[in-house]
């Protein structure tokens, strides 16, 4: 019984292995279901957008030349010849000295190249159309005008492949008329829980039994990353049961997570079950992060199979650090592993935290909000099998592998999880 | 035509009005669908959790008294009397000088109060059970043991009402046996787009026409906040059509968003349509943020009705600043309006940004990543009717109402949106 049951690799080596799995194939998805997903193909504009020069303001369409030098103390005067329709190409043509009432979004008439905001004008008569408008501000050509093709040019790529579709990209796709989009598939992720001590959530535990916490926690995390969790429930701790369940889960999903066994025997069983599959290979047998060291990475065909640590706290950290990025990578996000994807808050560390060099430490942190100062970050210590520590925590502090720890009153990044 | 078509209130006054709407009523939801939702009632533990003292490690269950003073240079020796089962209450009782093999998660036997990790032991014979174990490290009572009730105490509130259920809270609910939870309803949010110039995404625009961008953008934002968007499509710009559509949307939803009309006429129509409803009241007619000033807040019965600015950029800012928090507030999140809910990144401002005091400015920011330094924050300027500026931006910089702007090279918070 020696220390070091397996050789471990660094977090970045583990990430490099995960990046080796190819993103999923494309599928066609309705625009209304596309938010958060990733473009498999670039979006090529079928026409210029805007189609024509349009006003960004309520005001008067003018020729900039006609209002040159106008100001509060030196207003210009133009004759208003029309109130332009919002939904049609205007048939008005402005001659020098003329302007036309225009609403936000309205198409500029021929002869106009700018818009004066209504706030900078004054109608001299009761009726606007047919009357004289006082112009109190000069405008440059193009001012207050959205120009044809400013959002997208016909036949040019408006959004490149690999774009993660936020609400604003959904808006651009709508503007360009895409009712359907070619997106990378959403990963289906099979979840197996192993452990003879496990029972379903609906059952009452006898002494020694525990409910299957990990399936539910891991499924919620898979969903958070944009994947579709497919829980297979509890599998008995024997090679035959585990191999059969694993084979089915691999066939039916794009990736498989095995969870529940933290003891050495269960870890060995997980490795054996993966190795028993066709075209299987164990790629990593431990990763230098804490908690989370006993994580197994296998490949069956072209699909990743991960043995998560059995302790729920460790599994949560491994999910956030490695598996949520893997899921986003499979769904096509080219920056899936970038730390820029993490949601951070600055906080002041409440006390020293020691760390063992050679591994990355993820310390659970509870934030205490303070008025006018960054929140105070309290490390939440406690055994990794307990849920209390992760329920009390607001996020994680990351201590790099080359550091011996962090000092009280340091301003650090807290990764909100 | 004077400046100031309506009286405007501050962002915090607008927020206070939004907080006045009551969170939605509870409903019963399956645990598998509960992530991201909010507890309507506290979760009271039906029993202690853990049920009994359990090991957090693979190793040997001992009485701490028996290994007091043990160390590398001065090991202790105990007789191993059993290998404990993982899934049952052990019938082993340890006498002084005895230990028992225990796996992670195993229940401690009578006579044991701590666990020595297997890494700190050495079996002196081939067979562990029946042999002598060398103990190379002392342990304190309770060490490496999850204690009965450490996660939750019988009949105590394990999670208070108002808790937002992250994956870890889902795990705790699973551990305590909750297959169903009492959660606040997910807000159904009706979305109406007004504008005679609007056409459906699937249609080809004639000059002057634009596709209905806002419905799709706003729906994606509602979903992002956890609400259920219910789009009603395009409504004609007349009081009768708008009133009928609004009446139906209010009846069928928990909140209604009207979008599309940025021109003064459409804003007036929105106000008239809201006022035409039974038990209706206009609560705010403008908010001191930029972009986003022409936002209308109404109340019909106990339901909020919001007139969004028609420009998509302005609508996006108003959604993030005010309406996503409103949706989270309606679904029970007591901290919905806290800036702590925002996902921030520190960045260095690339150039000066001026701001008009008296209103909060939300400046669109594109981040340029740099090695070993915070990213550089470039303001993305451009007309608020364009999608390009929000597609190019990674987030928003907030300039407070009492500030005249931000200076180049300042380290500022970028709100990722």
Automatic annotation (TrEMBL), chains A, B:
Domain of life, per lineage: Bacteria
Cofactor: Mg(2+)
Known catalytic reactions: adenylyl-molybdopterin + molybdate = Mo-molybdopterin + AMP + H(+)
Enzyme class: transferase
Coiled-coil intervals: none
SUPFAM superfamilies reported for this sequence: MoeA C-terminal domain-like, MoeA N-terminal region -like, Molybdenum cofactor biosynthesis proteins
GO biological process: Mo-molybdopterin cofactor biosynthetic process
Family matches, as CDD domains: MoeA (cd00887)
Pathway the protein takes part in: Cofactor biosynthesis; molybdopterin biosynthesis
Ranges of residues in domain MoaB/Mog: 190-329
Listed EC numbers: 2.10.1.1
Keywords assigned by UniProt, alphabetized: Magnesium, Metal-binding, Molybdenum, Molybdenum cofactor biosynthesis, Transferase
GO molecular function annotation: metal ion binding; molybdopterin molybdotransferase activity
Record bears the keyword DNA-binding: no
Gene Ontology cellular component terms for the protein in this record: cytosol
The protein's role, per its UniProt record: Catalyzes the insertion of molybdate into adenylated molybdopterin with the concomitant release of AMP.
Family note: Belongs to the MoeA family.
Name of the molecule in the record: Molybdopterin molybdenumtransferase
UniProt organism field: Pseudodesulfovibrio hydrargyri
Gene: moeA_2
